[in-house]
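Memo subject: From amino acid sequence to discrete backbone structure tokens
Action wanted: Derive the backbone structure tokens from the amino acid sequence.
How to read it: Take the token row as a discrete description of the fold.
Attached in line: The record itself begins immediately under this heading.
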Amino acid sequence: MERDYVLGTHEDELQRLGLQHYIWRPHALKCWNEVGITQGSKVLDIGAGPGYATVDLADIVGESGEVVGIERSSNYLQHLREKLADKPNVRSYEMDIMKDDIPEDDFDFSWCRWVNSFLPDPSVLVRKNYDALKTGGKAIFHEYVHYETWQFIPPSQPQEEFIQEVIKNWRETGSETNVAKTLPQLLVNQGFELEATNPLVFVIRPHDFMWHWPLSFVEINLARQLELGRIEKLWADSVMEAFETRTKDPNSVMITPMMLEIIAKKC
């Protein structure tokens, strides 16, 4: 049985995740380089999805390194395995981090982006992550810390209503959008030592590549919520119109939802 997500695991969402990864790829690569992921490293990719980050990690660690991806969606894992069929240094497991144990350990690093915000209890992931790392190993997280920073300048009422709808939908599943507000303390409580907590927030314009990250999310989210019967089409059209209007205006300004880059070392 396919384990679904808030936005589904269908082809359109798979393509959106690819776009999202390539927009955020420079920031991930910079972080990985700074923490020391290199040839020969053993890396755990938590919530590997369709494997976009897994491919980059496999290239970085080389034949002497290893990358292990864990993912609960069979659809995404199929894409990952097809994409990485020629990479002997990659292994993947279908598992639910809330229910299943990570099948390997002794990792030098773990990478986890936009996973804790979908979990009913992030402390479970933190504990299992800790157990999977070797002493001195480092856990890396990219998670939202203040989703409400996402806004147009000047403000747009349909966009602000959309933000509140997204947060409400997230919380109705038992998860928390702004999970990075509590994640550092969960890590410390587990025995990690915090090495860095860096904000990731950007002011962008329609000509910026990053503009397509929130725009594509709006398109997929509205289509998904309409499919589930959670919103009215008239309202969805008003939100989409607001985003399309700002996208066509070269003078538009958008602030992205604030993320937190957290790096923690297992003591």
Summary: The domain at 11-266 is CATH 3.40.50.150 (Rossmann fold).
